[in-house]
Amino acid sequence: xxxxxxxxxxxxxxxxxxxxxxxxxxxxxxxxxxxxxxxxxxxxxxxxxxxxxxxxxxxxxxxxxxxxxxxxxxxxxxxxxxxxxxxxxxxxxxxxxxxxxxxxxxxxxxxxxxxxxxxxxxxxxxxxxxxxxxxxxxxxxxxxxxxxxxxxxxxxxxxxxxxxxxxxxxxxxxxxxxxxxxx
Length: 183
Description:
Blueprint: E1 28-31, E2 37-40, H1 42-61, E3 66-68, H2 70-78, H3 83-91, E4 95-98, E5 105-110, E6 113-114, E7 123-124, E8 126-135, E9 149-159, H4 172-180
Parallel strand pairs: 3-9
Antiparallel strand pairs: 1-2, 4-5, 5-8, 6-7, 8-9
Helix pairs in contact: 1-2
């Protein structure tokens, strides 16, 4: 038996459910970068605030070695990656490749390595990737910049094993020098 309730009755679940107009829900008035006002849900604007707060916190804590973009702050929340985990991938990668964007480097570490059987290499079910660019040190000497700064662009989890792409090219003269060095 179907009961038809009046549209303004609070027991009517369909009342006001069109385009997010739930009872007790008031969209937040916002202005975008061009000054055009519109409505935005509270959750979306709060997530943006949390992302900016995280980015500012990362740039304060990162010291002089890292600069964190707003994009990587969002991706770290999405993939549940901590700043220390991202830094560990950058410092000690299992594999490094040329990044998709120009002048970037992509590095990878396995998520959880599973020990292989005797004589077999370890396997893993996911990979953690980080893409970064190295910013050259400015000509003006500043006391807080020591060496080149790494701009962390993005981070992501890849399910399974990714195919091996082209490695970072090493100039021939440096390769010859490395071969001549006796350890």
